[in-house]
Write a structure and sequence with these properties.
Order of helices and strands: EEHEEHHH
Shape: globular
Number of strands: 4
Distance between the termini: 36 Å
Mean pLDDT: 90
Number of helices: 4
Low-confidence stretches: none
Radius of gyration: 18 Å
Length: 145
């Protein structure tokens, strides 16, 4: 099986605080991996590194055959295939849930507005939040957001 995510001797420091100390990892397609550790142990730093939201100090990260550690790699192209849900994220408070959901796919030209609305309805139904499509984020609980 070929790994779709590989980390080879990844190091990352914030000043004198080294949070990633030679991390090695291989994740195969369809495999589920859980990262567990105390606060400050580097979990979020590593996940942010997978999208190059955080630059590593040394080592290599390879996503689907693309070495994102190489400055010549088109990270925007790689990001089209990598998703990330942030621990703390903010929905646009002036937009409804539906408007927040369709904004990115429509703006990026990935879907028409109609296609994005149809998909958003399916996703809201899947998580039991169909009735929240037309409300503003400030009326939602943390879990609903």
């Amino acid at each position: 099986m070929t790994a779709i995510i590989e980390a080879h001797d990844v190091h990352k420091s914030f000043g004198k605080n080294e949070v990633l100390k030679g991390l090695n990892l291989a994740v195969n397609e369809g495999e589920v991996v859980v990262m567990i550790g105390p606060s400050g142990s580097g979990k979020s730093t590593f996940l942010r590194s997978l999208n190059k939201l955080e630059e590593i100090n040394s080592g290599q990260i390879v996503i689907d055959g693309h070495n994102i550690s190489d400055s010549k790699v088109n990270i925007d192209k790689v990001r089209e295939k990598v998703s990330m849900v942030f621990q703390h994220f903010n929905l646009f408070p002036h937009l409804t849930v539906m408007e927040n959901m369709i904004l990115a796919p429509v703006q990026l030209g990935k879907m028409t507005k109609s296609e994005a609305i149809d998909k958003a309805k399916v996703l809201l139904e899947r998580v039991g939040l169909s009735e929240k499509a037309d409300v503003k984020p400030d009326t939602l609980s943390g879990g609903q957001k």
